[in-house]
Design a protein that fits this description.
320 residues, alpha/beta, six-stranded parallel sheet, globular
């Protein structure tokens, strides 16, 4: 395991509900030694800085400031949560045109003089498409432009499975891949509880698992964000924790396997899109993609999901 630096500077661009929750999570975790909050609403950013700073007694030491795009340039990780919010009843892809325009203007200003080892982490939805847009309008290599992808969806999937079988989510293993959105794919064939195939474990200890049960679990995972937005207007806490997990993997050079959104160049039979797959994440960004041996149905569903993203990129005119 690498012994490179374990704490560093993180810039959070956009301190709305997701950005503020992310800053709070990063502060509480002790992952970063410095946080800089950037927002076009400078008063909002200063208010968040003040509120966070007043909790310094309760957290590991962290220097919190506000700034502008220039202050991102020596950050180890730049977390981008800026953009317009998803509206009730609106899909993530409905956000595309509105947020793509914002990113085309914003990202080049952030990355113009970005340090050679800085990582750009996109969280704003639709995250896969905006990660691709961010890569094309920056001069960064693909491994240094990452989307938060289905890290949260994977957590939701494991939560649902753990609830069904009444075990700790940490002992449930399974991945969600593809689009962070309606076409995402749950990899049932490789899910397991402590190494035991999930369906085998469910049969022995949880009364079994029917296809109807699986379909309902998938629905719950896919529609979780819509239900939360309908009730409270936005999702922010769980995505903040997922983002912190990714930042920690980068700063601590962990070589953690996370389902981040990355540029695919033939992996899983997909070319030239950003989509979520298990990746080894470390201080250099995405070290490599981990290719699962997918079933024919899973592979077809993944290719279809990637096709949804490719169609949206084509409509924007951003494919390389």
């Amino acid at each position: 395991m690498s012994t490179r630096r374990t704490r560093g500077k993180v810039a959070v661009v956009g301190v709305g509900s997701v950005g503020a929750a992310t800053a709070f999570s990063l502060m509480s975790s002790g992952v970063a030694s410095e946080l800089v909050l950037v927002d076009i609403d400078e008063e909002k950013a200063e208010g968040e800085r003040m509120d966070l700073s007043h909790g310094a007694y309760f957290t590991p030491p962290v220097d919190i400031t506000t700034g502008d795009y220039d202050d991102c340039r020596d950050a180890d990780v730049v977390v981008v949560t800026a953009g317009t919010n998803q509206r009730p009843g609106e899909s993530r892809l409905d956000l595309l045109e509105r947020n793509a325009g914002i990113f085309e203007e914003m990202i080049p200003q952030i990355t113009a003089e970005l340090a050679d080892d800085s990582i750009l982490l996109i969280v704003t939805n639709p995250v896969d498409v905006l990660s691709y847009v961010s890569w094309t309008v920056s001069d960064l290599p693909t491994e240094r432009v990452i989307g938060s992808g289905t890290v949260l969806d994977t957590s939701r999937f494991r939560h649902v499975m753990s609830r069904v079988c009444d075990v700790d989510p940490k002992n449930v293993h399974g991945y969600v891949v593809g689009e962070h959105g309606d076409s995402e794919v749950m990899l049932w064939d490789s899910t397991n509880v402590a190494g035991v195939p999930f369906e085998t474990y469910a049969e022995a200890h949880c009364g079994g698992l029917s296809e109807v049960d699986k379909a309902e679990m998938e629905r719950e995972v896919r529609e979780a964000a819509y239900e939360i937005i309908e009730r409270k207007g936005a999702t922010n806490y769980a995505i903040a924790l997922a983002t912190t997990e990714i930042v920690e993997a980068i700063l601590r050079d962990e070589n953690s396997i996370l389902t981040v959104s990355t540029h695919l160049d033939g992996e899983y039979g997909v070319d030239d899109v950003y989509a979520s797959v298990p990746c080894v994440v470390n201080r250099d960004g995405v070290r490599n993609v981990v290719e699962h041996d997918l079933s024919a149905d899973e592979r077809a569903a993944f290719v279809e999901s990637a096709g949804v993203l490719a169609e949206n990129l084509d409509e924007l005119g951003h494919r390389q």
